[in-house]
Amino acid sequence: MVVSEEIYGWCDESRYNQGKYRAISIFSHQKEDTDYLISGIGEIVEKSGITEMKWKHVKNDKKSKVVKDSLDFLIRTIKQRKKIRVDVLIWDVEDSRHKVMGRDDIMNLQVMYYHLFENVIEKRWRGTKKWRIYPDRNSSIKWTDVRKILSRRYNIEELTEKDSVENVLIQISDIFSGMGAYTWNSIEKYPMWIEKHFGQSKLFEEEPPATSLTNKDRYRWEVINTFYSKIKKLDLEGIKGNKAIEINTSRKMGFKTRNPEFPINFWFYIPQTDLDKAPIKNDPIGPRRKNPKGIWWYS
Q1: Which of 9, 32, 41, 295 has its CA 20 to 30 A from that of 165?
Q2: Domain 6-268 grouped into CATH 3.40.50.2300
Q3: Per residue in 168-200, pLDDT tens?
Q4: Rounded mean pLDDT, 190-216
Q5: Annotated domain spans of the chain
Q6: For position 204, what pLDDT does the model report?
Q7: Would you call 252 exposed, middle or buried from its count of C-beta atoms within 10 A (0-12, 13-18, 19+)?
Q8: Which residues of 173-204 are buried (b: 16+ CB within 10 A; e: fewer)?
Q9: Is-contact 136 174, C-beta < 8 A?
């Protein structure tokens, strides 16, 4: 497949300062598919009658349906062999990188965006000449610094904050980052939902559930299960969906993509070395780190 000269990326985060597992996401596509994607998802959202599609709003029939319909639209788009990607970076704040005194969650969020952008630009869209990146408006992140550092290595034509209420493709990133973090934070509730939905009580023969399934959980796991069932049926140039993405309740593991070439990539971050540490507040040296190529990632 010929890669476009210009790629658009739409970004959002979920629970960057809450919970054990946190996530960010970028939905990327070729410039020429922009109108198709915006009109397709926009029509679904408009017909639903809601103002904005967000993962945290998935707690009733109306708001879960619009998410399921939008995810179904994306899966159909992938089947049409259109070049689109969703890359979700998930991290554990209790791992060796993040379990540090005085961790600066805002700066760490910025650092994790660097990780995500470099990976997607360099490894997932190889050969791309130009990028236009549109994150959800977040006054905490210094996006001018992000663009400055990315521009040292990549052709960033534009990096501009947008209001997610007016941008349905940012809303897609919100859904994926929210869904990714939720599957890890609430993995123990998936068997409970399966038992409730399908009546498979044998899932709890070994150990009784330690928590309860709320009404919000029921809607969210229904969305996740519907999405996962459809993903497993995809077969893209030898990459089968049922082999690409996994979720494992016995290992307490939420969504994780085995093959990152798959267009929906849930990437669970693993600390690279003992020196890979999250930035801390009021660090007199400043949160400066080198990646393996010797490039300063942030300053």
Answers
A1: 32
A2: no
A3: 999 999 999 999 999 999 999 999 999 888 875
A4: 73
A5: 6-268
A6: 44
A7: exposed
A8: bbbbbbbbbbbbbbbebbbbbbbeeeeeeeee
A9: yes
